## 1
Amino acid sequence: MMSTAQETTEHRDHDTGFFGQPWALAHLFGVEMWERFSFYGMQGILLIYLYYSVSHGGLGLPQAVAGGIVGAYGGSVYLSTILGAWIADRILGSERVLFFSAIVIMAGHVALAVLPGVAGVGVGLVLVAIGSGGLKANATSVVGTLYSTEDPRRDAGFSLFYLGINLGGFFGPILTGLLQSTIGFHFGFGLAAVGMAAGLVQYSFGRRMLPAAASRVANPLPRNRYLTAGIIAVVAILLLVVLVLTGVIRADNLSTIVIIAAAVAATAYFAVILTSRRIDATERSRVWGFLPLFITSVAFWSLYQQQFTVLTVYSDTRLDRTLFGWEMPVSWVQSINPVFIIVLSGVFAALWTKLGTRQPSTPVKFALGAIVMGAAFLLFLPFANGAPHSTPLLAIVGILLVFTIAELLLSPIGLSVATKLAPTAFHTQMVALFFLSVSLGTAISGWLVQFYDPKNEVPYFSILGGIAIVVGLGLALSVKPVLGLMKGVR
């Protein structure tokens, strides 16, 4: 007779109600779609809101400072996955943290919509960053609970989940950009709040269908340590407030601070997991195998996330956005990548499913992702140092197609491998560690804005593209030892 655990695994492996995947994936697909609608919708107009003049509805900040803020904010989103993962693994479980995080996100978008000036930006971005961090790590972790470790549909399922992300990423910038360009920034931010509310309602109905494993607390915090954890949280908040009030944390150094925080957090996380007595030798080896993937991921995201910093400035000033005599909003450029994701994610999912055990290993996919991303930056070179609005829209479409191919080789695969390599006691926190690579790369993308010079673009695009290619080639040459450390996980 089969045990209860075996019966559960058998049921999961034969549940094909959602395009061949477990039916519960539909609910996670939906909440992530709406969350990304609000996230990318807001981010599509955030940078120009910060640097547009007051007469045009913006705050009038210098472009370098505005870019640094956006990069720091994006990095903080992924940095806060640590908090969301810790609360999930030690106190509430992933499913509950996901639900409460959605509420916090909605509150942040409401603050951006109704509070004027710097106050709205400060309150709104902090709430959205904390909520998005909690939702991202835990949504990914919950998706992982829908599959057994041996289920060959796992990578395809994560690619389908990624489709939901990008449906939201497509419609968000289009609709918020339309409102921003016609009736104002705060109406665009308000639409982002409405989108998150829709996601919250949808998830409230579907959360009951998730497996019990989604609510399991992997490593419960003893009750007698709750007070200590609360005191640490209060002290940390007060310290941040003091650093802001004394000018240590400023708008012009936010990205640097987030880079340092993310690097320290990642180092500490690797150290804590690797030295824990709760993991065995095989789990420890797999964590070591994750390290080169982490480094490659940082290099990838530091280029990819420039869609929201340098590429936004480039689209505003250098790109010809005229369509049949009408100039499309700047934010619409950020909807090009999700279109390709929507089209190609199914292709990649089908490809990995068809290849099965013959598909390239995870280190090979990561290496190719970094190399292709570096090549995408080199594609800017034929248009370097051009006149205002001289770059054809079709050229950016082609470059973003290459961005997309690189993304599909690395990002959904990174989410999947993080759940496969995760020690049992650090399941959600291992996902957070992957997001720390995104945090570090995103903060670096904001920090790099200061080096972008529209009058001398060749060094910028060629050096950064070359670095990404070198990192990818380095991982490609190290595939065998990395797979050895991963102990059977491909």
## 2
Amino acid sequence: MELLGRRTQVIKLFLVLVVVGLLRGAESRTTMKFESLEYTAISCRAHSASLTEFGGVGDGKSSNTKAFQAAISQLSQYASEGGAQLFVPAGKWLTGSFNLISHFTLYLHKDAVLLASQDVNEWPVLKPLPSYGRGRDAAAGRFSSLIFGTNLTDVIVTGDNGTIDGQGEFWWQQFHKKKLKYTRPYLIEIMFSTDIQISNLTLRDSPSWNVHPVYSSNILVQGITVIAPITSPNTDGINPDSCTNTRIEDCYIVSGDDCVAVKSGWDEYGIAFGRPTKQLVIRRLTCISPYSATIALGSEMSGGIQDVRAEDIVAINTESGIRIKTAVGRGGYVKDIYVRRMTMHTMKWVFKMNGDYGSHADGKYDKNAVPEIKGINYRDMVADNVTIAARLEGIADHPFTGICISNVTIGLAAKAKKQPWTCTDIEGITSGVTPSPCDLLPDQGPKATACNFPADDLPIDLVELKQCTYRMSYL
């Protein structure tokens, strides 16, 4: 009987241990999370990890700067083994600036929010860009962007429309009060790099520019939503700067500045650096910016801008459709620009060109550095509720040439200016344009063939995306 009692006690103890183990296992399973990720990208990765594995806390209060830095540092070991992906789960992830690496993907869950820190100590200070010679806000250096990278290859920042929130109000106030020693940070800046993808994200309230690829090539910016107050300072949407072979498509931008601003350096610094922006495609862009342009070329264009192709553009309550900004002292050129199938509602100007745009880097600019503006082609456009059809002002003795406008109908607002076109120091032709353009743009008749859009594909249009699939498990 005693032996039987002991056996019964052992069995009971065993059963208790089994139940406890099952409960602990169930508890463990409830804390483990699983995500299935599917997206298209220029590259898929062989390795993947979650920010939580490196101490990340998504409570919106804890700083995750060190967690991002640790994760990216650890994942760099896989660069030569198929690359790595860092997954940011649902949550609010407060962070300062951090740097990306080559052969790397940063992926944001649809309910993930990166919150930019308002602690300036979490923003390293960088030297001014060599093609600018100084910062945009202050003559000294600039704060590093929230997501930054330089001298990289094969970099992807993407997600399922996750959010990057720049919490820009803090920076805008400092800017307006003239208290900034350095230029405000951008949300994403990648420089001296190649094979870049920035896609399927929402960018909110950037301190300044939102997306800034600079001195880079083979760039895809796709499915980006940019939202900022229309009075916020310098919150440009996407600014390709001294870049080659870039494609911007399917983006929606509401901002306090230009929705897309094409750049290539500032005055003598841009001339000396000598790196143009060329082979740029912009398509299926929607823009709202009551005080700025849908697409701006310049004003920092001293390295040159060439072969820009924009099509299927919608502008709503935006100051201007296509704008060229330049001045004596810029040097450089803007040429071979093609825009077609643009729809505009409630505009101040449809077309605007300025040859007297000031804002020089310093007083050292070359007063003999006259920019060359030629080969500007606009066709197949319609606009309504427009105050002024066009203001086209070149440079005395250096006119803007080769302007071609075809099949454009502009409906003027009830309180439109009596003179819908203002033209000085320009040369070109038109065909089928309403209202009738200025004498410097003579009408060639409705049957004239002009302003043709290029039929060839640029190399960036031939990039084939891969279908990437991951099964993520994380705490």
## 3
Amino acid sequence: MKTETIISKQLYSLNDNTRSIEDSLSRSIFRINSKSSKKVVDRPSSPLGFIVLIGTFIAMIAGAFLVYKLQSDFDQFHIERINSTWGFPFLVLTAILFVFQTGVFLYNLFLYLRYKPIPSVTDDLLPTCTVIVPAYNEGKLVWDTLLSLADSDYPEQKLQILAIDDGSKDDTWYWMQQAKIKLGDRLSIYQQPVNKGKRHALYRGFELATGEIFVTVDSDSIVKPDTLRNLVSPFVVDEKCGAVAGNVHVLNNKKAILPKMLNVSFVMSFEFMRSAESMLGSVLCTPGAAAAYRNTAVFECLSEWINQTFMGEPSDIGEDRAMTNMILKQGYHVLFQRNAYVLTNVPEEYTGLYKMFIRWGRSNVRENIMMAKYVFKDFRNESKFGARLLFVNQSLKIVMAFPFLIFMLFFIVIHPLLFLGSTLLSILIVSSFPVLFYAKRYSLADAFWAYSYSIFYTFSLFWITPYAIITANKSGWLTRGLSEKKIDKVACEI
């Protein structure tokens, strides 16, 4: 017991020593992202980052050169494929899917151009709001999260902040207590006796909440001062609004290469895709980093949500996608607020990243199955076309995962150079839109990471969707063990 106390004190001391550095970094990133979304922010790249970007362009140029030099081989390959028993049907299917995907993209572009976030309503119109922050092994990050929420431009008398420690094994509870000391009655903290999972921590928060609107914020995320008011304003304007998704950016995008790539990917995913989905009233997933829910919509499905199972096993992943799905099923609109910014931490290493994607992939498979049960029924009075189109698009990506994986492996075995060249050239063409999109919204220098991310995902994460499909019945957070390993490593070093 004495040894544990000494280690705990040393951990706290270590956190205190690094706190000023982390605070400085968080505030710097926060200030950058708090500026106008139209403003260009050019930041110097690290030597490694510069090398990765140069390597990316060399690879894509080499791919284009291969396609040019091997044009006759390409022609011969296409002829052989068309004349084969399976080749022509596959070619027809590919053409149909290409036309469909192109049509969906153009439709999304049309919707995006029409999208405008709902401006914040006045203080007197703002509803009462409860913010729930579940935390597990987040350490000092939870302090930053809670203080950023307390600094929100939201009437104090209408704001309730709850933090739930889900049986953490590090100093998360200590930092919650420190936040409680600083914020007083503005913050209520609770501790789960054992780690039950994020869904159960949120469930406890929902039961304790008193606000008309429930907001969930991850304990490794920081919000802007106007995030909360922007996030909840749609509920005032649209009485059919049941949930709202926030605009997620990467907080630690200065620390490693992967967060740089993911930041560009997140902007495309949220500011383009969710803007289009919002115009259809059918955002498919409200992110755990920052999401808002009408309390009546939550209570309507809370029992089903906490007791959700898949193939007979309790669901302990995808709680955000599941909640969104159940609220859509009730006939509510689910919207996106581009002006509700939240900065969140993402994995900096490959292991953490692929485990996060596996978790998301499994949730996507499960919730698409659930959505299939109601999306073609009369689940809402308004138009159901948008929700159905999004469902079909998502389902096609899942259904075609294995056929395209088999074709890719066949292509690699038969014509490796043709595969390499065509893939790299395709990345150059297809990823140019995310590059232009990010450059228009933020920074040209950072926009080029979209190319690097596409190459990285294509060659090192292509297996995620097929693997998530065949293991969709498996549970587990996957990345939580990584945090525990880091704690053990720090304790050993001390």
